[in-house]
Structure formats: structure tokens, C-alpha cells
Design goal:
Blueprint (H helix, E strand, L loop, with lengths): L2 H19 L5 E3 L3 H9 L5 H13 L11 H21 L6 H9 L8 H14 L7 H11 L10 H16 L10 E7 L6 E7 L2 E7 L9 H8 L4 H16 L6 E3 L3 H17 L4 H9 L13 H10 L1 H12 L4 H12 L3 H11 L9 H13 L5 H10 L4 H12 L1
Helix pairs in contact: 1-2, 1-3, 1-4, 3-4, 4-5, 6-7, 6-13, 8-9, 9-11, 11-17, 14-15, 14-17, 15-16, 17-19
């Protein structure tokens, strides 16, 4: 076995062992099934040993001699390993301040955002929602209720998601080549910690899982499907398998640690996905032509795209809530902050607090706001389609995006 292949095997086993240590759910793994079965059958490896193994692998990344790993590939793997090491150290008792822990996992700098950022988002919502009196939070909640999929229509949700997926996939083909035999279906799960999640299963197959225990906003249908499916998460995993695994032999693309720099870009891509395939109000017009009349929902003067843009900014509130929690603020205060600035309804807050309670998942929430912000300038201008295509097919990291932005601006 070559040095490169031995190193990659050890890296993949380390990722599997850390995922097991955390109870699963932080690794997107489509590598050899036998390796996963082997890790499941062995005695759990202590956190300190896993952190030490990450140190060892970081010290011997095979980048020198015989051209074993090119710089882009090594950079992506190094970011994954640093994240794995940080999480293993946290599991072993290390307690870093939030900003340091996020930097170690996601490779980005974070700080508590000023509330003026959220005030601007509230003002944008005020302009985008139907006219009326009352606080913007109440109007947003009313808008969501007005577009909610009726309980007696829940059995139609998989068909609606698959119909939207066909549309977003067709539009994605306009700027990136897709195979002719790829498929996306939808499965409704009784309960989950997410509203929706896109999973690439291999063999050109993807599934969008939707939480059947939560209300579904029909006005969000295309944003959810674009984010989780095409040109978002499923498209990214599919195309990187084609271009990087099959095209270049980069097997590590089938072992992606989610709390990593690549996660930041994936979520940023997901939040920009709708705008990549629906310009302006095209998505809203498609929904009013193909979905909303079936449920008796008429135009109400709202601007769907502007509502979604403003709500995306409010992911920053979740990050601020992590800082508050880390300072030891009472749960009631954190909950009130989420409702005041994030415009969450009371029943939604418990889910967020549960996520923030996990020391391992706290970095996760920062990926949305900062991923979106990082790609905002990158995806502006006439090169946006080509740049998004590259994000789908090349091993980008936040550092590489920043470097290319700096080079373009110099």
C-alpha cells in the first residue's frame, strides 16, 4: 500500500471513530461498508487517543515527494483533520472559548454580531411582508401560517418536493453538467431535529428527508428543495463524486466531517442555491402557477425572495445565542433573545436550545450566517454561474474563496 493510501485509510478510520464517539450524525460517510462495520464492532477509542491520532496524521500529511497530494487536496484534508482533532479534544475535556473552538472546527473567525444587523433584517421583512399593523414578528408568523401546508394535505408533501426537485434540477443544468440518470426522491420522517435534510446515497441517487412533525411552509418549498437538493447539498455530493472521486481518485470525498471548513461553504451554497436557479421573483411566480392554487393560497403582496433573504440574515442570531449560552446566561434569557431577534415562535425555541446545549454541535450554527456572507461577494457579478459550478466540482475551502476574492480585487 502506498504512503498516500495508507494515510487516507487512517484518516477515514479516525473520522469513523470520532463519529462513533459522538454518537453518530457528524459524518457523511459513503466509503467501504466493511470499514464502518469494523469500527462499530470494536471497543470505543478514548477521546485522547483519537486527538493524538489526529496530531500524528497532521504531522505527516503526504504532500512532499512524488507529488502525492496536490495543495488544494491537502488543504481540504488538513481542515477536516483540524476539525476532527478539535472535537476529539472537546470530548476529552478541553473547553475552549467559542470563537477559538469555531476557528478550530470551521476555519473561520466569528464574533458576537451587533443587533443592528438584525434590525436591518427586520426592516427588510417589514417591507417584504403583506401590509398590515403590528410587530414584524407577528406579521411573519401570520404569513407563515397563511402559507402552511394543510394537515389534510400532508400526504402530498413527497410529491410536491419531488415536483420542485425536477424543476430545480432542470434549472441547475443551465450552468453545470449533470448525469442523465440521477434521481431525487422525498421521504417524510415522523420526527427529527431538522426541517429538511438532503442526503446523497451514491449511485446517482439522492433523498430529501422532511420532518413530518413540523409545519411545512409552502412558500419555502423551492428554497428548501434548492438548498437540500439541486443546486445545493445533493448536487454538491453527486458532482464531487463524479469529478473528484471517479475523475481523480479522491476517495476522501466519501468521508466528510460535517463540523469542518467545507461545511461552511456547503451551507453558504445552500442558502444561495435558490437565487442561483430563480432570478428575482421567478420562484414565487412558479409557486403561484404550479403549487399554491391547489391549496387555495392567493397572492398577498408579499415578496418571497426578500422574506427568505432577511430570514437568512437571522441565522446570525443563533450564533449570538451560542455566545450568550457560553457566558452562562440563563436559558430563559437565551430563549427570549432568540424570540426577540430571531423572530422564532415559542415552540421553535426548544429545538434551538437543544442544539445549543451540545458542546460538539455549537460550531454548526455559525456555518449558515458566515457561509452565506463569505459567498455573497463571490457569487455576485457576471461570473457567478461559473463560480458556483466550481464550488460544486472543486475542493474549495473558505481560505481558498478568500484568497481568490482578494486576488480578484487586487
Amino acid at each position: 500500500m502506498s504512503v498516500e493510501r495508507e494515510w487516507l485509510r487512517d484518516y477515514m478510520f479516525l473520522a469513523l471513530r470520532v463519529d462513533r464517539l459522538l454518537g453518530g450524525g457528524v459524518l457523511d460517510y459513503r466509503g467501504p461498508a466493511g470499514w464502518k462495520e469494523r469500527v462499530a464492532a470494536e471497543e470505543p477509542v478514548p477521546a485522547a487517543r483519537l486527538a493524538g491520532e489526529a496530531d500524528r496524521l497532521l504531522a505527516v500529511v503526504p504532500t512532499n515527494g512524488d507529488g502525492m497530494l496536490d495543495p488544494e487536496r491537502a488543504d481540504a484534508l488538513t481542515g477536516q483533520l483540524r476539525a476532527i482533532r478539535a472535537v476529539a479534544r472537546r470530548a476529552g475535556g478541553e473547553d475552549l472559548p467559542v470563537a477559538e473552538y469555531v476557528r478550530a472546527c470551521l476555519g473561520i473567525e466569528v464574533r458576537r454580531l451587533p443587533e443592528e444587523v438584525f434590525e436591518e433584517a427586520h426592516e427588510a421583512l417589514d417591507a417584504a411582508l403583506p401590509r398590515g399593523g403590528g410587530p414584524v414578528a407577528d406579521r411573519l408568523h401570520a404569513w407563515r401560517r397563511a402559507h402552511r401546508l394543510p394537515d389534510d394535505g400532508r400526504d402530498r408533501l413527497p410529491g410536491l418536493v419531488e415536483r420542485a426537485a425536477r424543476e430545480t434540477r432542470d434549472r441547475t443544468r443551465a450552468f453545470v453538467g449533470l448525469p442523465a440518470d440521477d434521481t431525487v426522491d422525498c421521504q417524510v420522517v415522523p420526527r427529527a431535529h431538522f426541517l429538511a435534510a438532503g442526503a446523497y446515497l451514491g449511485d446517482r441517487r439522492g433523498t430529501i428527508f422532511v420532518n413530518g412533525g413540523l409545519p411545512f411552509n409552502l412558500a419555502d418549498l423551492l428554497t428548501v428543495v434548492a438548498h437540500e437538493g439541486y443546486p445545493g447539498h445533493i448536487a454538491e455530493a453527486l458532482l464531487k463524486e463524479i469529478h473528484l472521486v471517479e475523475g481523480r481518485g479522491w476517495e476522501e470525498q466519501r468521508t466528510r466531517f460535517l463540523l469542518s471548513p467545507q461545511f461552511v461553504l456547503s451551507e453558504g451554497m445552500g442558502l444561495h442555491a435558490h437565487a442561483m436557479v430563480f432570478a428575482g421573483d421567478e420562484g414565487q411566480r412558479w409557486l403561484h402557477a404550479h403549487v399554491l392554487p391547489e391549496f387555495g393560497v392567493a397572492p398577498d403582496g408579499s415578496d418571497f425572495a426578500a422574506v427568505h433573504d432577511a430570514r437568512d440574515v437571522l441565522w446570525g442570531v443563533w450564533g449570538n445565542a451560542v455566545f450568550l449560552s457560553d457566558e452562562g446566561r440563563p436559558e430563559e434569557e437565551v430563549a427570549a433573545y432568540l424570540m426577540r431577534w430571531g423572530l422564532l415562535e415559542e415552540h421553535e425555541v426548544a429545538t434551538v436550545l437543544g442544539l445549543l446545549a451540545s458542546p460538539f454541535l455549537r460550531p454548526y450554527v455559525f456555518g449558515y450566517y458566515h457561509g452565506r456572507l463569505l459567498l455573497q461577494d463571490w457569487l455576485s457579478g457576471p461570473e457567478r454561474n461559473d463560480r458556483y459550478r466550481r464550488l460544486l466540482t472543486e475542493p474549495f475551502t473558505p481560505r481558498r474563496v478568500r484568497a481568490e476574492l482578494a486576488s480578484a480585487g487586487s
